[in-house]
Amino acid sequence: MPAPERLTPEQLPTPWLMDTEKLLSELARIRSLALTVPVTNETYGPTNTVVDALWDLESRMRFMLQTLRTSQREFAKKASTESTAANENTGLLGESSAALPGCKRLNSG
User: Fold this and answer.
1) How many domains does the chain have?
2) Cα–chain-centroid distance for residue 63?
3) How far apart are CA 85 and CA 53, in angstroms?
4) In angstroms, rounded to a whole number, what is the distance separating the alpha carbons of residues 72 and 80?
5) How many CA atoms lie within 13 A of 84 on its CB side?
6) 48 lies in a domain?
7) How many angstroms separate the CA atoms of 3 and 81, rounded?
8) Is 0.70 surpassed by the pTM of this model?
9) Does residue 78 lie in a domain region?
10) Among residues 75, 105, 78, 79, which one has the least CA distance to residue 90?
């Protein structure tokens, strides 16, 4: 029986381009494949170790993604708030710059 064909790293997509949900689905698929290994005294321990490792990896990835999404949302929210405040202070959004203490409004005409 010939060895199965394997993809080389050069043939694989860039890891940063892989869809996260697809990666999580793939981990779940591999875990379900490990669960199809016939249980014997010799295979129970190693198979259980593989299943536990895949479950742990998937859980950690979900936690990291959730943390990343939360931090990105907070960053965007803060940047939006600061941008709005900066625009108001420079007069880009209207006449609010006249309210700044010590600023004199120049007549344009």
Assistant:
1) 1
2) 9
3) 48
4) 12
5) 6
6) yes
7) 58
8) no
9) yes
10) 105
Whether pLDDT at 29 is above 60: yes
Q: Is 36 inside a domain boundary?
A: no
Only one residue has tokens 């907070």, namely: 74
The number of beta carbons lying within 10 Å of the beta carbon of residue 15 is 8
The answer to whether residue 26 scores a pLDDT higher than 60 is yes
Whether residue 25 lies inside any domain: the answer is: no
Burial string for 89-98 (b: 16+ CB within 10 Å, else e) reads: eeeeeeeeee
> Residue 17 gets which letter from DSSP?
G
Which amino acid appears at position 1 of this protein?
M
Residue that has been written with the tokens 């203490």 in this structure: 101
83 is in which domain, residue-wise?
A: 43-88
Averaged pLDDT score across all residues of the chain: 79
Q: Helix (H, G, I), strand (E, B), or coil: what is residue 72?
A: helix
Residues 6 or more apart from 94 whose CB is under 8 A from it?
A: 88
